[in-house]
Write a structure and sequence with these properties.
mainly alpha; Glycerol uptake facilitator protein; about 75% helix; about 260 residues
């Protein structure tokens, strides 16, 4: 028996955008309403999971001295984030922001999500890099070199540009992963964008904090005050890159859907 021929016209790009928008809003509601215990554990695991990428990064860079190869190794951390369903602070620049813009969530809920996730990412990350540096003393010199690079970037146009690029890269990765239900396809941007982020030495508040933590534990020539300044500056640039450069512009493609969602409240 021959299978019936599908005569339905292919979906228009506009239809695909509509479906993607609804999916993002629905998922954002779930994230913004997540109980504090679940939010805390997800963020803590996110820091630990991305720490496995830092482990791979330091080992490969220590062996090869090549930041591009080390960046490719780091993508293991983003694969772990995806498969383990944990979460990074910068992964919340698209989905929950769209939900708040559609008035399906509040700014206070968004601030709670961002604050708890970032804090727990840093706590989990500090723990895993302490284990890395303590268990593998051979990576100490590489950790100090890598962490010092970010701690000494300072407040400048260059460091801001690197932070904006990092925020845009992560948010674009998030958007691409939400365009499909196929786990195999979702792995592709996790690997490619993870390698781009670390290999290109972009200024990412969580990843680079973990590298600075590793350097501090290994005896870096800077202190936690320097780390805190770098964290604040990189987080600001990441927000600009993710929310302004990627999310806001994409919302301009579906203004009618935003208006429709708002009318329902």
């Amino acid at each position: 028996m021959t299978s019936p021929v599908n005569t339905d016209p292919p979906a228009k790009p506009e239809d695909e955008l509509e479906v993607a928008f609804e999916r993002l809003v629905d998922e954002g509601e779930v994230r913004l309403r997540r109980p504090i215990l679940a939010l805390t554990s997800t963020g803590l695991l996110g820091g630990i999971d991305v720490g496995t990428g830092v482990l791979a990064y330091l080992l490969v860079k220590e062996s090869t001295g090549n930041p591009l190869l080390a960046g490719l190794a780091f993508s293991l951390g983003f694969v772990a984030l995806l498969l383990a369903r944990s979460e990074l602070f910068t992964e919340n620049f698209l989905v929950p922001v769209i939900t708040v813009v559609a008035k399906k969530g509040t700014l206070s809920a968004l601030a709670r999500l961002w604050g708890v996730t970032l804090l727990m990412n840093l706590a989990g990350g500090w723990l895993i890099v302490w284990l890395i540096v303590t268990g593998l003393p051979k990576v100490k010199s590489t950790a100090v070199e890598s962490g010092t690079h970010y701690a000494t970037l300072g407040v400048s146009a260059q460091s801001f540009a690197l932070a904006v690029l990092a925020g845009a890269v992560i948010t674009l990765m998030t958007r691409m992963q939400h365009a499909t239900d196929s786990l195999g396809v979702q792995l592709v941007p996790a690997i490619l964008f993870g390698a781009l982020l670390a290999g290109g030495q972009l200024f990412h508040c969580v990843l680079d904090s973990l590298l600075m933590f590793a350097a501090l534990i290994a005896g870096a020539p800077f202190g936690y005050a320097d780390w805190l300044g770098a964290l604040a500056w990189s987080a600001f640039g990441n927000l600009v890159g993710g929310v302004v450069l990627v999310t806001a512009i994409r919302l301009l493609r579906v203004p009618h859907r935003v208006a429709e969602e708002r009318k329902q409240n």
